[in-house]
Amino acid sequence: MNPIRQILVATDFSEQSREALDYAAQLARPFGAAIDILHIWEVPTFVPAGGAAGFGNASLFEMISKGAEEALNKFVDDASKREISVRFAKTEAGAPAYRITEVAKEGGYDLIVVGTHGRTGLSRVLLGSVAENVVRHAPCPVLAVRMRTEA
Questions:
Q1: CB 7 within 8 A of CB 109
Q2: CB 4 within 8 A of CB 110
Q3: I need a labelling partner for 139 at 20 to 30 A (CA). Which of 26, 52, 54, 55 fits?
Q4: How far apart are the C-alpha atoms of 36 and 40, rounded to whole Å?
Q5: For residue 41, how many other CB atoms are within 10 A of its CB?
Q6: Which residues, 6 or more positions from 9, have their beta carbon under 8 angstroms from its beta carbon?
Q7: pLDDT tier at 79 (50, 70, 90 boundaries)?
Q8: pTM for this structure?
Q9: How far apart are CA 138 and CA 8, in angstroms?
Q10: What's the pLDDT at 56?
């Protein structure tokens, strides 16, 4: 088994993502591994009714990008408050599963950690699963973290 030196945590800012980051931190500590955080947001494929009216001078793309950056900063700040060291964090537009696996490949990551919403059955088939597609196409091992449930 290769040592774990770089961990990529994919986030959608959900509680599952926070749980995934906690697991990544637990794994990183004994190995001295670096943790990087990645958020991929999808470019809208439609224009809302009324077009771009109401967005002022900012484009829909710029608004979503800015919102993603703000959410990422808050996610990283929260991690810091919980004493989780993050080497760097970034957000970008694209197809989430595809970009996560490409960034992992480009960065030479040893592990991807991603939260899963635990969808099963028809909802998973209809909605797809970012975590499942990352597992299928990743260039390295993937830890898919499911939210703990009360017993």
A1: yes
A2: yes
A3: 26
A4: 13
A5: 20
A6: 17, 20, 21, 24, 35, 36, 37, 38, 112, 113, 114
A7: very high
A8: 0.85
A9: 11
A10: 53
Nearest to 139 by CA among 107, 101, 113: 101
Q: Which residues contact 18 (CB under 8 A, 6 or more apart)?
A: 75, 78, 115
Q: What is the mean pLDDT of the chain?
A: 86
Could you tell me if 147 and 23 are in contact, meaning their C-beta atoms sit under 8 angstroms apart? no
Strand order in the sheet with 34-41: 88-93, 34-41, 6-10, 111-116, 142-146
Mean pLDDT to the nearest integer, 70-81: 96
Digit-coded pLDDT (tens) for 130-149? 889 999 999 999 999 987 66
Distances (CA, A) of 147 to 47, 81, 97, 98, 102: 34, 21, 19, 23, 25
Q: In the predicted model, what is the mean pLDDT of residues 99-127?
A: 79
For the chain, counts of helices (H) and of strands (E): 5, 5
Q: Is the dihedral of CA 9, 131, 146, 65 positive or negative?
A: positive
The residue with tokens 């906690």 is 22
